[in-house]
Design a protein that fits this description.
six-stranded antiparallel beta sheet; 8 helices; alpha+beta; homodimer; 31% strand; elongated
Chain lengths: 264, 264
């Protein structure tokens, strides 16, 4: 440590040294970190200082407290979500759910689903080019991995397109929503995904059973037909501690995306 | 609000009502929120309760304190970063920097740059298929928008590939690193971007002048030649309050990405 760092408060110095030990692999994912008592002894500090040091790592999302058991290095074993391969037509075209490739042999399940008719929020209506008051089919799903909720997805489809189809049912059948859209003559051909990140609201934290100090990733995915008609907007909220998004693409894509309005 | 919500503590109820007012547009981006005194009067609560309520919105990244001036709705005027179009060869092939499309008429500038020879971290060496101890050219840059740092980028290139070229200089010349790689016979043809989000470290917060309650987005981009050889790994750290990432792609991409090792 450089001499200029000596102005750091004690708890910060302890936090920094623990962080370095984690980054160097001295403490691996899931390992228990030294407790307050250990830190008090090792560094000759008061309990509050030790607590603050561990608090820094919790706030950064590097460590997590387990009730009555201490503070542990957070295990980052993410779901790898393939933005592009995942949506390749030959994947959903033959009856597989688009989500099956998300998890690479880990079981992602829907544990909550509601389907309703609603007026979409303005930002969604704008992207879907809806007339004033035009109603959408709204599919809200929560996805769980190993009992832990990891993803909230709210999908909006123009009601005139999907009325009477299985898309308005909880069970959409083999291949899911996109296979049904194809049967209805609105086969998705282009996708746009917009990705943001922010801290979760209290409601999102509750729904995703999130630890403190963890952001959410927001993905707004729009599906377009080959004529550039937007047919679905899917607003997804992901527990950032559970996901890596992957996008693979060529330097010179053969096709450009349709010219579409900007939702943000 | 439903009766079941009445168990919420007072500060939480105030925070929830302010959040709803923001989401409904009653307070827009950059607007000043009611101060502690206002909330004390309106809701008949103690100063500490009012302060906690505003603290909730700050922690969620919805609001930000300005010294001596109160608490404001955070303005989210993001840079739109086009993952795919941005890297299209016809963009960097004719001398434009790949970053120029990031900002859509707003001026993103490099305000810090260092170039050095270093042994890359193990995760990077693994992706680049480097032999033990093989050295990389490391280009570290900080990008600033309107005086605010928004992006840290650290690029690793195998030294044997780039030694003696302008890539080892601060100024890489027209078209940047990718144009030089093409001249060297290592033209990037495929890209993989992996996207994560987490809370920033103290050092990242400082380097990006970040507000409390804001996560960073991490992008690890790997560039491959058309023969699948990895030629660059670029680890980027973005202030999440400043960015929307956009990826546009087709349902049935013509080419699949090369089969490459997994860096995470």
């Amino acid at each position: 440590m450089a001499a200029t760092d000596d102005r750091r408060p004690k708890y910060q110095r302890i936090a920094d040294s623990l962080r370095e030990a984690i980054q160097s692999g001295e403490y691996g994912p899931g390992d228990r970190l030294p407790g307050e008592n250990d830190l008090m002894t090792t560094h000759g500090v008061a309990r509050m200082t030790a607590r603050q040091a561990l608090g820094v790592l919790r706030d950064e999302g590097i460590a997590e407290a387990r009730k009555g058991a201490g503070v542990y290095v957070r295990a980052f074993r993410p779901i790898r979500r393939h933005g592009i391969q995942r949506l390749a037509r030959d994947q959903w075209g033959n009856g597989r759910s688009i989500w099956s490739a998300d998890i690479e042999s880990r079981a992602l399940e829907v544990d909550r689903i509601t389907v309703s008719e609603e007026t979409a929020p303005d930002r969604v209506s704008a992207v879907l080019n809806l007339a004033d008051g035009e109603v959408t089919c709204v599919r809200r799903r929560r996805f769980v991995l190993d009992g832990k909720p990891v993803l909230l997805a709210t999908s909006y489809l123009p009601m005139p397109l999907v009325a009477g189809s299985a898309i308005t049912q909880e069970e959409t059948g083999p291949g899911g929503t996109y296979a049904r859209l194809a049967e209805l003559g609105y086969e998705p051909a282009h996708f746009r995904e917009e990705v943001r990140s922010r801290m979760p609201s209290k409601d999102e934290m509750t729904q995703l059973s999130m630890a403190t100090g963890t952001p959410v990733i927001l993905i707004c995915r729009t599906a377009f037909t080959d004529r550039g008609r937007p047919v679905e907007v899917n607003e997804m909220t992901l527990d950032a501690a559970s996901y890596v998004l992957e996008y693979d693409f060529d330097a010179n894509p053969k096709t450009m995306p349709p010219n579409v309005p900007d939702p943000s």
